[in-house]
């Protein structure tokens, strides 16, 4: 096997450089002299996560596709803590990313099965207030590109960042109760009737029809005389204003200066 470096990280005070190699070893180097100080042994697959402790220059976290999470003392070349991400009935879950909290007392990891793992000191009670499965109903909705190559939501034909805040659903797409919907930024102060999503049937790419959360209101509802969503009205107004500004800029650019002075604005 030809050794290849898969990840590199400096420690907190820049005295050490840690490299992850595709032979599953981590190597600790002196950043000034380039001298190899330690080989860190423990991983059984490639490592793509190296995270530096925010203020302790001795501590480095590593995680990889083997499901192992290590906390190392890189000055001594020793393991401080180890966690193996075993998922019941499915084997281990590859760890894709890790980050320390600003105070260095916690770190969070995400794995290949969509789990968020939170480690640290203190009590787990605050995390018990939220459901085990949390997804946005827009997570797997298809996107398209318009004539300007801008990304649009296929169903609503709107730019994703201009759409109303999404709903929280479980892994099967079933919406959570209204008390959880208020956890979504932008829905904190919504009335209960605006926190109940509308369900509909959507055809998947392989032709299967499944029930999914569609959104707050649809165009068909507006045509039937039902009360429109406040959020959707705001989105439409923002889109209209943006279209008007874009049209004005393009008109100004197309006219341009006629006497050769200056440069026309780009639309």
TrEMBL record:
Q: What UniProt keywords are attached to this protein's entry? A: Repeat, WD repeat
Q: Which InterPro entries match?
A: Bromo_WD_repeat, WD40/YVTN_repeat-like_dom_sf, WD40_repeat_CS, WD40_repeat_dom_sf, WD40_rpt
State the source organism's domain of life. Answer: Eukaryota
One of this protein's Pfam families, by short name?
A: WD40
Q: Which GO terms describe its cellular component?
A: nucleus
Compositionally biased region (Polar residues): 239-261
Q: Does the keyword Repeat apply?
A: yes
Protein name stated in the entry: BRWD1 protein
In the record, what lineage is assigned to the organism producing the protein?
A: Eukaryota, Metazoa, Chordata, Craniata, Vertebrata
Gene encoding the protein: Brwd1_0
């Amino acid at each position: 096997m030809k050794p290849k470096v898969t990840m590199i990280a400096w420690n907190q005070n820049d005295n050490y450089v840690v490299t992850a190699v595709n032979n599953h070893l981590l190597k600790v180097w002196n950043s000034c002299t380039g001298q190899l100080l330690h080989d860190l042994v423990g991983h059984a697959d490639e490592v793509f996560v190296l995270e530096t402790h925010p203020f302790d220059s001795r501590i480095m976290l590593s995680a990889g596709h083997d499901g192992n999470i290590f906390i190392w003392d890189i000055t001594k070349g020793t393991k401080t803590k180890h966690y193996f991400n075993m998922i019941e009935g499915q084997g281990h879950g590859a760890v894709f990313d890790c980050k320390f909290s600003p105070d260095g007392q916690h770190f969070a990891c995400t794995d290949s099965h969509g789990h968020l793992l939170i480690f640290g000191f203190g009590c787990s009670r605050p995390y018990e207030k939220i459901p085990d499965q949390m997804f946005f109903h827009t997570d797997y909705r298809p996107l398209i590109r318009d004539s300007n190559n801008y990304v649009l939501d296929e169903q609503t034909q709107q730019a994703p960042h201009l759409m109303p805040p999404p709903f929280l659903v479980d892994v099967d797409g079933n919406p959570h109760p209204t008390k959880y919907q208020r956890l979504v930024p932008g829905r904190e102060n919504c009335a209960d009737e605006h926190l109940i999503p509308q369900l509909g049937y959507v055809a998947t790419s392989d032709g299967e029809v499944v029930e999914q959360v569609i959104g707050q209101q649809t165009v068909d509802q507006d045509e039937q005389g039902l009360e429109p969503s406040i959020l959707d009205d705001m989105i439409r107004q923002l889109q209209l204003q943006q279209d008007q500004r874009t049209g004005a800029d393009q008109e100004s650019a197309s006219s341009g200066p006629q006497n050769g002075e200056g440069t026309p604005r780009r639309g």
